[in-house]
Amino acid sequence: MKRLGVLTGGGDAPGLNAVIRAITKTAIREYGIEVIGFRDGFKGVMEDQRMLLTESAVSGILPRGGTILGTTNRDNPFKYQVAEGRFEDRSEQCINKIKEHADALIVIGGDGSLSIAHELSLKGLPVVGCPKTIDNDLAVGQAKTFGFDTAYAFATEALDRLHSTAESHHRILVLEVMGRYAGHIALHAGLAGGADIILIPELPFTYDKIIAKIQDRLQQNKRFSLVVVAEGAKQLGGEMVIQKMIAGSDDPIRLGGIGETVAGQLEKLTGIESRVTVLGHLQRGGSPTPYDRILATRYGVAATDLAAQGQFGYVVSLDGENIKPIHLSQVAHGIRKVDIEGELLKAARKIGISFGD
Ligand code: F6P
């Protein structure tokens, strides 16, 4: 192999630059391969926007958030927007364009981009995937995705800060965190930040159960409560709120507002002053934690090793202590939910955290 292509797709996550840096360094130093970065995900492939990734191009980017290549949720080559409201399958063209500039492609992405990578690999493109999402909900076995550690560390800090003001004002403070389909950020941050109630998509809640926990605290003379709610959490029997569709994407859901609803309802039902904080994209920005920098670096090195050895159609994934390849077909279109029978969730219950279920 002479030239390796790389792109970052979907929502950004802290650690993307660390992966790009690791791929570039490994390819050049270990294998003498040139690295071509496509800009803004598959959009850069289709629109011939790319850059040569040299060691100096990736110098200094390890601690930087975002991605120097840019990214977008749009521009799926299988549903490519050719005019307002008109989409066509341009996957053949996409493969030809990639092959013009690179012998193989590393896709650093979440479920959407890795599903596209899988479909392209079925059509003959040599691809390796690298798993990314702050939500930690990719179907990569028990492996963590990079970006998650940074996101929940930030949410934990937010809870620490909310704690003192909640206590001073005797309020219920609700923190809404990301997690459309799975509650990993909410569960981890809730545990690390000492939340009293954690609401996740996997366990539909009732206000009665949440209020029972708040009453219990009042009886212990604890006049404040901290609630963490994942954006995809829903009331038992309720629906998730779909706010808009993304053109050309299968990904229709943009949630938000559940935190406000919960805070409003709790104030109404308990009479206790309640406020909401929505963390939003603050969770996706900023410098990756040391854990995420190392994980991202390992994923970048492992993905490059696979590509250089001609092993395509895989996603790299941390299995225990070691990085192992997982078939792209296993990861594409899969979501890993919080294990509601798992030790972590049970531990949370044992120390008195309520899930409102
Ligand atoms: O998948 C990552 C994620 O951060 C979700 O948790 C969140 O719902 C979504 O992206 C937000 O996406 P966007 O930036 O496109 O609104």
From TrEMBL:
A cellular component annotation (GO) from this entry: 6-phosphofructokinase complex
Keyword Magnesium assigned: yes
Pfam family, one: PFK
Gene3D superfamilies, sorted: 3.40.50.450, Phosphofructokinase domain
Residues binding Mg(2+): 111
Keywords (A to Z) from UniProt: ATP-binding, Cytoplasm, Glycolysis, Kinase, Magnesium, Metal-binding, Nucleotide-binding, Transferase
BP GO annotations: canonical glycolysis; fructose 1,6-bisphosphate metabolic process; fructose 6-phosphate metabolic process
Enzyme Commission (EC) number: 2.7.1.11
SUPFAM superfamilies reported in the protein's UniProt record: Phosphofructokinase
Subcellular location: Cytoplasm
Residues of the active site: 135 (proton acceptor)
Gene Ontology molecular function terms on file: 6-phosphofructokinase activity; AMP binding; ATP binding; diphosphate-fructose-6-phosphate 1-phosphotransferase activity; fructose-6-phosphate binding; identical protein binding; metal ion binding; monosaccharide binding
Binding-site list for substrate: 133-135, 171, 178-180, 231, 275, 281-284
Marked site positions, Important for substrate specificity: 112
PANTHER family attached to this UniProt entry: ATP-DEPENDENT 6-PHOSPHOFRUCTOKINASE 3, PHOSPHOFRUCTOKINASE
Subunit structure: Homodimer or homotetramer.
HAMAP family tied to this protein: Phosphofructokinase_III
Record family assignment: Belongs to the phosphofructokinase type A (PFKA) family. Mixed-substrate PFK group III subfamily.
Role according to the record: Catalyzes the phosphorylation of D-fructose 6-phosphate to fructose 1,6-bisphosphate by ATP, the first committing step of glycolysis.
Name of the molecule in the record: ATP-dependent 6-phosphofructokinase
Organism: Desulforamulus aeronauticus DSM 10349
